[in-house]
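Consider this record:
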Amino acid sequence: MSTSELPEWAEDEINSIKDESFRLEDSWEGTGYFLDIDKDNRVVDINFYEQLPIGKYIITARVRDSIDMDGLKKGIVYTYKIRVFKAPLSGKLTKFLKENFNLDMDGVYRFELESLEPLEDVSSTESVVEEEK
């Protein structure tokens, strides 16, 4: 086995992760914008200005059915509410990944877009500032 390959037991554990394996870990709110919107699969890539608690700035998130995908737009800054789910990895796999790949990873994460609100576009001509008289 080369260092770029996983042993069969490790692949089996990773491949055994199913939707039922994920548990709600956290809810998080931040601002950012869409990098990609996949309406067919109801997933989006979001770039956050703030770092998520797990250290990422860019995530792929599933979009709840209650959110209208046609209303989502690139190039607009939104405030997002994200639900963070985690499927834990065994201690054996966590140790293997650390020792062989220098990966500090104790679980696999999944994200769900819970809600979003566009921030006001400060460059818009619709925003009128009253002049001093």
In short: The longest helix spans residues 91-101. The two ends are 78 Å apart (CA to CA). The chain is about 15% helix and 40% strand. Confidence is low (pLDDT under 50) at residues 122-133.
